[in-house]
Amino acid sequence: MPTALLSVFDKTGIVDLAAALHAAGWRIVSSGGTAKAVAEAGVPVTDLVELTGLPAILDHRVVTLHPKVHGGLLADPTNPEHQADMAEHDIEAIELVVVNLYPFTSNPSIELIDIGGPAMVRAAAKNHAHVGVVVNPADYALVKEEVAATGVLSAATRRRLARDAFATIAAYDAAIANWFDAQPDEPEALPAGLHLSMELAQSLRYGENPHQQGARYRIAGATSWWDTAVQHNGKELSFLNLYDTEAAWKLVHRFDEPACVIVKHANPCGVAVAADAVEAYVRANACDPVSAFGGIVALNRPVTAALAEALAPVFTEVVVAPSFEPDALEVFAKKPNLRVLSASAPVVGPLDMRSIDGGLLVQHTDVVNTDTSTWRVVTDAQPTAQQWADLVFAWQVCAAVSSNAIVYVKDGQAFGIGAGQQNRVDSAGIAARRADGRAAGGACASDAFFPFRDGLDAAATAGVTAVVQPGGSVRDDEVIAAANEHGITMVFTGERHFRH
Fold it and tell me: In the beta sheet, which residues pair with residue 360?
């Protein structure tokens, strides 16, 4: 009679699994809450103490850490020496272990660091040629199916389960190490190590280009807004769909009022706030309709049928919003290639990572400060209430634009965005041409200081009357003087927002 050892924190499905194993002729061994749940369901269960002769001790810290458990898991039934040791020490073989671990990430603490569970999982996974190991309740159905059909688990299943088991332990240990690293002696320091365990979360249509494969991976045990996203319409997502949608979704959630962000190639080409989402979309699209063609549209309000009708005539790759009214989905259903996503708000993590050869570049996540009490007016002219509002809006948008970044806005609407240029004056010129006079009387934001007055002069030519920038150039006095010459009010934030 084969033996299955059940020891789970999450009892979901464990009783049905125990019943299926018992019906297939297996003996069930368990302890604690798992044994109680199985017994109360009427399934015969042998208490683990009958195998080990030792009850749980040290406040339940030691239960399964015993030679009769690990001997039963690690024994090779084809090895005569192993069989002799088992006979001498009265050790019984264990052919299946079902374990899920203390949920450390739910409330990280010393007491939620599982010891016995990982030890059993590693032992069974190492000996997967003879032992099955299950760490995920999602695999219970497969186990029940195979034992019902043949009485045992197939070699292929045991191997796959072993792989999953080691991956689970790796992720568990990584979470614990990261918890320790998140409590450094110097609170502002980056962690001493990064322990990443990633799992395939989503296969994608292709990578950046159609000849490249692409996929989304997530940190094992973690979830993101992408895991809440529901695709209601459209083709399969590609690598760049996710990359650009991520940029749009994060930026649109910087605004409390109804807002729309349109992103193309990871840069916003339209941003606006308004009294309602329809107006926000119309205003955002008006910023740069040429670039908006084939872009990503993100909204921070539910999408109505009226908004869907406004958006439908423009070729768009992805629309993402908190939710969609049924009538709006009916409008989008007429556009079979349009990808429509609803999702929860993004959560900004503490670290930003980018791959380089042999490793990662890691930095603290860039946080945009909009507390104007920490900003400094450096010109003779003082901002009006409307100019303050435009300066804050421009600063939020500019921080999301690739450097060198220049943004012209007016009344909560972006009109000119210059991105990714090797010099700031070119970005200012690009933004001015796109604004085409529409930002006159509005504000300009620069993600870093103006190294020369030419950038400020370009902003003046665009007609803006207020400028926000970090300051810090050796020529700040020249730039301030230029602003005073043009009658422009200028504010220094003290922080730059390069984005490469």
Answer: 355
Give 492's contacts (C-beta < 8 A, 6+ positions apart): 375, 376, 378, 469, 470, 471, 472, 476
Buried b / exposed e over 208-229, threshold 16 CB at 10 Å, is eeeeeebebeebbbbebbbeeb
Residue 81 CB neighbour total at 10 angstroms: 9
Give the integer Cα–Cα distance in Å for 91 and 75: 9
Domains of the chain (ranges; CATH) run 3-179 (3.40.50.1380), 227-342 (3.40.140.20), 372-492 (3.40.140.20)
Catalytic site includes residue 82: no
DSSP H helices, 258-379, are: 277-287, 289-292, 305-311, 326-333
Rounded to whole angstroms, the Cα distance separating 469 from 76 reads: 69
| Residue 51 binned pLDDT confidence (cut-offs 50, 70, 90) | confident
> What's the pLDDT at 53?
76
pLDDT of residue 108: 85
The residue annotated as part of the active site, out of 11, 126, 195, 232, is: 126
Residues in the chain: 500
**Position of tokens 């749009």?**
248
d(CA 95, CA 129): 10
Q: Is the pLDDT of residue 47 over 90?
A: no
Comparison of pLDDT for 317 and 182, the residue scoring more: 317
pLDDT in tens, 114-142: 888 899 999 999 999 999 999 999 999 99
Catalytic residue among 22, 36, 130, 265, which? 265
Cβ 277 vs Cβ 350: under 8 Å? no
In the beta sheet, which residues pair with residue 28?
4
Residue 255 corresponds to which tokens in the numbers above? Answer: 């605004």
Query: With bands split at pLDDT 50, 70 and 90, how would you rate the model's confidence at 61?
Result: confident
Active site residue 89: no
